[in-house]
Amino acid sequence: MENSLGSSSGAAAHYDGVNNDAWRLLSQIVSAANRRDADAHALAIMRWPAEVPLAVQQRVGVYLLYLLYRQVKVILGRQPTAEDLHELTGGVYPKFSEILSKADEILLEETLRRVFELPPLRAPLKPGDFGVFSSVALGVLMTNPEVDLETMRPGLASWLHRNQEKFRAEGLLDDLSGA
């Protein structure tokens, strides 16, 4: 599931296709998860309905899809199998549950399975649930989100660019030409 839209550093003089508002929000929630700060993560997520435009929320979800995909592949060094995702889930779940104590282990595995387009074990995740679970999963899988995310941004931008017509057709990303 390699997708594409290129990106450059936040200090780049040109727009790389990554929405800066969505990127800041994503960085905030992933960093909170990485610090195991359940309160900060929850507060950022709970702000969304009232303060974050739907288009930005959708972009965060799309970005999380790519970023979690890439991070898992980097950790494993290859395209994972269903068994790999099950094993990764078991190893990461204790950290995941520090932020989402009421989420059972299967929800983490369902999140990873969705990223890799594997059939769900139970009912498919709702988009809002995917946003919450994937942001926590990505956070606990990273060593240093600030550095890791900036390293991943060019790949995200390239993935978005490669898939822009698909995203437009699905109504997810309308304009990739400006911030």
Task: Please give the structural blueprint.
Layout: E1 4-5, H1 20-34, H2 38-51, H3 54-76, H4 82-99, H5 105-115, H6 127-141, H7 145-162, H8 164-169
Helix pairs in contact: 1-2, 1-3, 1-6, 3-6, 3-7, 4-5, 4-6, 5-6
List keywords for this structure.
179 residues; mainly alpha; 67% helix; 1% strand; disordered N terminus
Provide a descriptive summary of the structure in words.
It is a single chain. This protein is mainly α and about 180 residues long. It has one domain (about 15-165). About 65% of the residues lie in helices and about 0% in strands. It is built from eight helices and one strand. It has helices at about 20-35, 40-50, 55-75, 80-100, 105-115, 125-140, 145-160, 165-170; one strand at about 5. The protein starts with a strand and ends in a 10-residue tail after the last helix.
Put the structure in a nutshell.
The chain is mostly helical and 179 residues long. It has one domain (17-167). Helices cover 67% and strands 1% of the residues.
Report, as a whole number of angstroms, the end-to-end distance.
Answer: 26 Å
Average of the residue pLDDT scores = 88
Low-confidence parts, pLDDT < 50 over ≥5 residues? Answer: 1-13
What is the N-to-C succession of helices and strands? Answer: EHHHHHHHH
| Total count of domains | 1
- What's the total count of β strands? 1
Helix content: 55-70%
Strand content: under 5%
Query: How many separate helices?
Result: 8
Shape, principal axes of CA atoms: globular
Main beta sheet strand tally, sense and closure? none
Secondary-structure content class: mainly alpha
The whole-angstrom Rg is 15 Å
